[in-house]
Amino acid sequence: MTIAMDAEALNEFLARDFPQVAGSYRVEAAEPDRLVARLVVSDAHLRPGGTVSGPSIFALADLAIYCAILSRIGPVALAVTTCANVDFMRKPAAGRDLLAECRLLKLGRVLAVADALIFSDGQDEPVARCAMTYSIPPK
Q: What angle do CA 89, 134, 23 make, to 5 degrees?
């Protein structure tokens, strides 16, 4: 397994092609067998009660898995989510960023399947588990 885009290249791609995520999301590590992405949690990501919202957790997982796929195939902006399942397992720790640890389970010509565990920074137990399938456009 080789890397087509490292963490720096992925962050540059996001800043250029998805500026709406700048400042909130970043790729921490892109390795052949895993990718780690961070959500810098702010008030915009909180729901009443002071916990990170489900949509924010979903967005982190979606972005992280997208980047895990791009790390292997290069900058294909039109790869899209076709199926997603999120299990919310516990409340995220207050005042901490979230980390997504992703692995690709299958990378084919037209479909990619991946999963992500979401953790509160510094915590051992995951707050969510996400499984997603992406469609990769033809070249």
A: 65
Domain count for the chain: 1
Q: Is residue 27 part of a domain?
A: yes
Chain position carrying tokens 């796929």: 69
Residue range(s) defining the domain that contains residue 34: 7-135
Strands of the chain, DSSP E: 25-31, 34-39, 46-47, 51-52, 80-88, 98-107, 111-120, 126-135
Return the CATH number at 109: 3.10.129.10
**Residue 14 and residue 24: Cα distance in Å, rounded?**
11
Q: What is the pLDDT along the chain (139 residues), one digit of tens a residue?
A: 789 999 999 999 999 999 999 889 999 999 999 999 999 999 999 988 888 999 999 999 999 999 999 999 999 888 999 999 999 999 998 889 999 999 999 999 999 999 999 999 999 999 999 999 999 998 7
Q: Is residue 1 part of a domain?
A: no
pTM of the model: 0.95
Q: What is the CA radius of gyration of the chain?
A: 14
Return d(Cα 67, Cα 45) in angstroms, integer: 20
